Known about the structure:
alpha+beta, 4-stranded mixed sheet, about 20% strand, Initiator Replication protein
Amino acid sequence: MDNTKSFKPTERKKVLISNDFREILIRQDTTIIEQRLIVMILSCIKDEQAMFITVKSPIDHIFQKQLSFDECFDGWANQGTVDFIIPLKDLNPKRKMKNKSIKTALINMTNINWLQLKDDSINGFRAVPFILEPGWNHRNIFFKMDKAVMKHLVNMSQYYPLKKDLPYEASSANTIKFLMWILKFKKYGGLTMAYSQILKELHIPSDKYDGRSRFERDFLMNIKADLDCFNNLSFNYSYREGKYSFVIYDTVKAIGTHEKFKTLNELQIDRALKYIKRRRELDEAQARVLKKIYLLRGYDELSKRIKSKISYSHKGQEYIKAVLILLEK
């Protein structure tokens, strides 16, 4: 093999995430830029990952010996590392990310505590950086990866496909983190779990969100909107007696049955209307008027215009009039 081999990105629609690395993405609070770097790395090594995927065949190849990881990568290593070259035009195609932010993400991924890998020599784990020796110029970024980390990425005993463009479309780093978590329940079609347990499994501090409603508004609703628009799998959810129930569905098939997915703007409007209708004692006709105003102005604009600017004593039609007066100013 070529001792000077370097891994470079290849055009992919999907990348493969090993079960080992999926757990890392659930535990680790990665940024959007780090997630984009990760999918670029996975696009580089997808062909190598394929060598470790067992293909089911009716023919029993009892005499065929599958190469071990060390045999496959023998000759590519340079003192136990492999090299990566990522063109900036591939990582940052629309030049929306600042070079400074990319450099910060690279340096963060060299942190010794970024990964925890099993170490049989001590019958435990050791903390290791995800990448080593990052560098950059006006065209490319360069770094090395320890073969132990590479082995983690190509353990294909169980793996999950991920759309390569998802971290470029998602509104939050939480989208991929949650997707990685809920994927393990795909074969069951969904799950039911206590709110406190969900936070624990997602490694979210119990006081991160000020109550369940804030968790839905700031976490679940944004993720659902992202997955409905940009992923092949998404979910619906409901809450009852302290537990959330999630149903996983195929977005392509669901769209084929003419189910209309709500945009993030529509989800936010529905949430606001539910609260305002109860708090301001609106009847159905008044609620419909307010909804039309929201749809015309958009959730973000209208919320900024009326938030904390109308007396709590205004109810019903009096509240609607106050909204219209504010919009005229």
